[in-house]
Amino acid sequence: MERRCSVDELHHFIVGLLEVVGIGKTSADITAQVLVSADCEGNESHGVLRLPIYIENLEKGRFNRNPMVTAARTGSGTAVVDGDNGLGQWVAYRAMETAIDIARESGVGTVSVRESNHFGVASYYGEMACKECMIGLVLSNTPAAMAPWGGRTPFFGTNPIAIVVPTSINPIVIDMSTSVVARGKILYAAQHEQRIPHGWAVDKYGAPTDDPNAALKGTLLPIAEGKGYALALGVEVLAGVLSGSAWGPDVGWMYDEHTTPVNMGHFMMAIQVSRFLKWEKFLERIDEFMAAIKSVPLAANVSSILIPGERRAVTRLERKLHGIPVPVAIINQLNQLASKYKVQPL
Amino acid sequence: MERRCSVDELHHFIVGLLEVVGIGKTSADITAQVLVSADCEGNESHGVLRLPIYIENLEKGRFNRNPMVTAARTGSGTAVVDGDNGLGQWVAYRAMETAIDIARESGVGTVSVRESNHFGVASYYGEMACKECMIGLVLSNTPAAMAPWGGRTPFFGTNPIAIVVPTSINPIVIDMSTSVVARGKILYAAQHEQRIPHGWAVDKYGAPTDDPNAALKGTLLPIAEGKGYALALGVEVLAGVLSGSAWGPDVGWMYDEHTTPVNMGHFMMAIQVSRFLKWEKFLERIDEFMAAIKSVPLAANVSSILIPGERRAVTRLERKLHGIPVPVAIINQLNQLASKYKVQPL
Predict the structure, then answer these.
(1) Is the ipTM beyond the 0.95 threshold?
(2) How far apart are CA B346 and CA B342, in angstroms?
(3) Which residue in A108, A231, A237 is closest to B172 by CB distance?
């Protein structure tokens, strides 16, 4: 059971709630935009679903309601952003704005971010760069969920990598975690008494398992064995070690009972296309590139080759027109918050 | 059967041969360094083994013996390098030098490279950045060997990604192709009449196969299914489409009979650590990070967790001391060249 909410309706609702718990107008507006964008493109696990936990953390003071997000320019191509423990969406948005400003001036802007929180969909910030005729790169560490290759307890997060490329149509959106699956998928299997495929996770002894309950006590596996481990490690270095944020198991988890800041770290880049190729020439080449990929002969039982980002572009268009389907269970949960904070329910 | 050659012996031999076919002193010296470094660290498939094919391409004029490698600065953080169809090692070396110079000034140097050739081990250039207290990033496109996900004919190369991070001991060296295996492994299985694991490649109809001969007529598979496809695509955009080089199936293959330039493209970055964190603080954190990874409890039947780059550091040390084992078949092949060009044999 679900109900379709319009983009505006959902946006307005989120802003209202965030303002009531003490978030500033601009920051509430940006956070709502990032959340609704996730729901709109089919990334519901990073959408409005997260609002209750954000509110809870703002309420108990684990997130800072009034952060002073600062960007210190440290070179003509670089800056260091301190998120002051604000909402991750707001911090990340400001960081990418900084990277874009720098890139406009120097051709490339490289920004590390410390003292941040869960920022939702990584590619959102990459798309900001695209709108400025830039390629966006976004990396983040996340709470420990995955062992290093050969280990059996969680150390790395699912450490996402996003690369977003402008084209004359929809951007190419590469946005992937470095684990085979998100922990949520294993949780779902456990709740529905299903087995999971071998290769998703290992049990607490580090042995392969298809039992989701054993997997939940163990650890997620990286994509492509040692290669995914290496990629997750690379992300942790750039987003965590280099930024001065927490890294590895020290990254906080907003769902637990601790009160210390999460201190997540990000790494962001904006690369101005026109410093490498005339913009028109690039567009011509990238469009031709996408067309060439789509015209590769198909494997058996495949109906078309997808360019990363296509599916979400279609979903986004459809949901902008017809509304976002939100499960009734989530609407009820959100409306409980609405009632508690005396804002208009959904 | 193999013979141990010292680093100096091999270096001297390569320089001698390259000079005879018309390569300048500095460029021959750098190319030899990159090749010997590959053999020294155990990446033999990118070492002196490649010398005969380079010589052949220089001889027939497919590679340019006297390239004018130019670096055009296009912003305080960016440059565009044109390799003028020179040896890939020389072009890539000059490109990373440029990135490092820019990063010293601006904090980050981002360089795209066009008109290049096969450059050997990607991480070599990343290690150049490490020596300057920078993190190095190296991407390259390579000749078509891998279908996009859902396709059945080669389009992308094995498109490597290298990230090299300085530490107070050996650098962390992440250097991986985005295909499950190199084509060479399938060739080896075919020659030895072995089956290959499912998941390495598909046949010419795009169907899974464990027959190496069928696989050789088909295409390699990306790591982690659609995720590896997305990564290979991202590399192709940055190294190929953005640089103005050839991309996809238009990248030339130095082993075929064509005479048109290969026109490979690269993307390189040097990131100066001290713009983000004090150098000493970074070293402290990265060393602690590595120690923490190594102390994660081990999975069953695992004797230790490796940090990417550890194995090659050990091999390098051992081979510097005791020489590089070179198969006699390769020594014979090299000595035939030596005899043809009247240089001292190995």
Answers:
(1) yes
(2) 12
(3) A237
Please list every residue in chain B whose beta carbon sits closer than 8 Å to the beta carbon of residue A229: 308
Task: Give the residue on A whose Cα is nearest the Cα of B299.
Answer: A206
CATH code (residue B133): 3.30.1370.60
**Cβ–Cβ of A292/B155 closer than 8 Å?**
yes
Q: Where are the alpha helices (DSSP H) in chain A?
A: 7-20, 25-40, 51-59, 88-106, 123-130, 183-191, 212-217, 226-235, 279-294, 310-322, 328-341
Residues of A in Cβ contact (< 8 Å) with B292 = 155, 248-249
Query: Is the CB of B321 inside 8 Å of chain A's CB atoms?
Result: no
Contacts of A129 (CB under 8 A, 6+ apart): A96, A99, A100, A103, A135, A136, A164, A270, A271
Q: What is the pLDDT of residues A151-167, one digit of tens each?
A: 999 999 999 999 999 99
- CA distances (Å), origin A298, targets A290, A292, A305: 15, 13, 7
| pLDDT tens string A56-69 | 999 999 999 999 99
> What's the token pair of residue A306?
């997808």
Task: Specify if B341 maps to a domain.
Answer: yes
**In this model, does residue B87 exceed pLDDT 90?**
yes
Instruction: Give the DSSP letter of residue B273.
Output: G
Cβ(B219)–Cβ(B202) below 8 Å: yes
Domain match, A94 and A2 both: no
Question: How, if at all, do strands A108-116 and A78-82 pair?
Answer: parallel
Listed by number, the residues of chain B in 64-83 with a beta carbon closer than 8 Å to a beta carbon of chain A are: 74-78, 80
pLDDT tens digits, residue range A261-298?
999 999 999 999 999 999 999 999 999 999 999 999 99
Q: Is residue B34 part of a domain?
A: yes
Q: Cβ B300–A151 below 8 Å, yes or no?
A: no
Whether B118 and B99 map to the same domain: the answer is yes
Q: Which residues from A are below 8 Å from B286, CB to CB?
A: 237, 241
B150 and B55 share a domain?
A: no
Same domain, B111 and B160: yes
Domain that holds residue A24: 1-59+316-346
